[in-house]
Amino acid sequence: MTAESKPGVGLFVTCLADLFRPTVAFAAARLLRAAGCTVTVPPAQSCCGQPAYNSGDARGARRIAKRVVEVFSPYDFTVAPSGSCAAIIREHYPALLGDDPGLREKSQRLARRTYELTTFLADVRNFTAVDAAFNCTATYHDSCAGLRECGIHRQPRRLLQQVRGLTLREMADSDVCCGFGGTFCVKYPDISARMAGDKAHAIAQSGADAVLGGDLGCLLNIAGRIKRGGGGARVFHVAEVLAGMKGAAIGEGEGEGGGAK
């Protein structure tokens, strides 16, 4: 890659975006192109392997990690509209594949070159050309993996400050888990439901019209809890807002709005 060329980005779509909210992937691609990148969506990509990894299936997680490394190694950067998917590639692939001489260096390079979307836009590309409007008061949920493993906090807020008409209002405990936690909500449904209820209450108390975030798992969980509780806040992925591609809120579309009951 030369100084004059556009960096080549392999867009890691994520399973949830592919199955439940494709708009998030399209919005991510639009933002990356606006930030001066050439975007490719590798058709051979698969899950990041997080469900297998969290469930203790190390062999299955390694098999998936090997495929992801091979598919995304050709690109200058790998970008995911998900802190949790970016975190497993960045923080866990090198250890998963550390005993494979053929993939150790590749996994380490991929880890160094993998970013969550808002981090890549704000920190790597210094992106300041957000062209979107959203007339509302919004609050932001910091997902666990994104915040704690990828250091994502100021980046989405910095980008959202550029959205015309948008006012950000922090909720109480914005950094507290929503109860989704990948397989956590399956293993501990009662605890998960209580945590989701607490998050929905914090959103309602903030007085925000919308809640935004960077991980679809969290957002689907939050949207489901708000819907069942009769709350009024709409839920969107941050990429949709930044790209001006909101459409129907998460939980309003067919097949969306799952989560702890």
Spell the H/E element sequence. Answer: EHHEHHEHHEHEHHEHHEHEH
Structural class: alpha/beta
Number of domains: 2
Tell me the span between the first and last alpha carbons: 49 Å
What characterizes the major β-sheet? Answer: 4 strands, parallel
Please, could you describe this protein's structure?
The chain has 261 residues and is an alpha/beta fold. The protein has two domains: 8-123, no CATH class; 131-242, Rossmann fold (3-Layer(aba) Sandwich), CATH 3.40.50. It has 13 helices and eight strands. The protein has helices at 15-20, 22-34, 50-54, 58-72, 83-96, 104-112, 117-124, 144-150, 154-160, 184-187, 189-206, 216-229, 238-242, and strands spanning 8-11, 38-40, 77-80, 114-116, 133-140, 164-168, 210-213, 234-237. Helix 7 crosses helix 9. It is globular, with a radius of gyration of 18 Å. It starts with 7 loop residues before the first strand and ends in a 19-residue tail after the last helix.
